[in-house]
Design brief:
Length: 203
């Protein structure tokens, strides 16, 4: 999770064994960023974690997100602990901005957490997700894209079908960055097109 992060000082590692949530918070004095990296739940297939049910976010008008992703992020108030820690770091470093990233399910977690933290701070929040499934409903998409201090770059392999799911009443947010793949990749297993190694090779 943290091997290839340059110039980063590890501030906190957050883990929830019940939901398998993993997140690392780092601080870079070189780039003046606070970085949050969400791990991917590789121990369970994505479709065992990702179903069609949605949960309404508090204090919103029918802004709904995937129930599994919401539970994983909010169980034991993990998101509130991260928000509190980031707020304290920003008091010390008010000129720093926030960068959040993740792959697969970790990308979905990064996207949801970016939305939540953008409500709590005035600094710019940038989310970069790799191979992330869709997260929420149409109202979620509208509210996410409306936030002025929130940017999302959604990196996807051209033939990664996981990024098109769930199909029914789920929507992507942010700006799509499509990585090109040869046409022959259309005929290989989606496990290959969705793999971290395939993303690494195509960047």
């Amino acid at each position: 999770l943290i091997e290839n992060i340059s110039h980063g000082i590890i501030i906190e590692f957050i883990k929830n064994d019940d939901t398998q949530l993993q997140a690392c918070i780092l601080l870079s004095k070189v780039t003046k960023h606070i970085i949050i990296i969400f791990g991917n739940n590789s121990s369970e297939k994505w479709y065992n974690k990702y179903h069609l049910f949605k949960t309404k976010l508090k204090n919103t008008y029918n802004v709904c997100v995937n129930t599994s992703i919401h539970h994983e992020l909010t169980d034991k108030n993990s998101h509130l602990k991260m928000i509190e820690l980031l707020s304290k770091l920003l008091l010390i470093h008010p000129e720093y901005n926030i960068q959040i990233c993740g792959y697969g399910i970790g990308g979905s977690l990064a996207t949801l957490f970016g939305y939540l933290i953008a409500d709590e701070i005035h600094q710019n929040v940038t989310v970069v997700s790799f191979g992330s499934p869709r997260v929420g409903n149409y109202n979620w998409k509208q509210m996410f894209n409306f936030k002025r201090n929130l940017n999302h770059y959604r990196v996807v392999n051209k033939y990664d079908m996981i990024t098109n799911r769930p199909f029914i009443k789920y929507y992507h947010v942010g700006k799509k960055v499509q990585l090109q793949q040869p046409f022959s990749k259309l005929f290989v297993s989606n496990k290959t097109n969705h793999s971290q190694n395939e993303y690494y090779q195509n960047i």
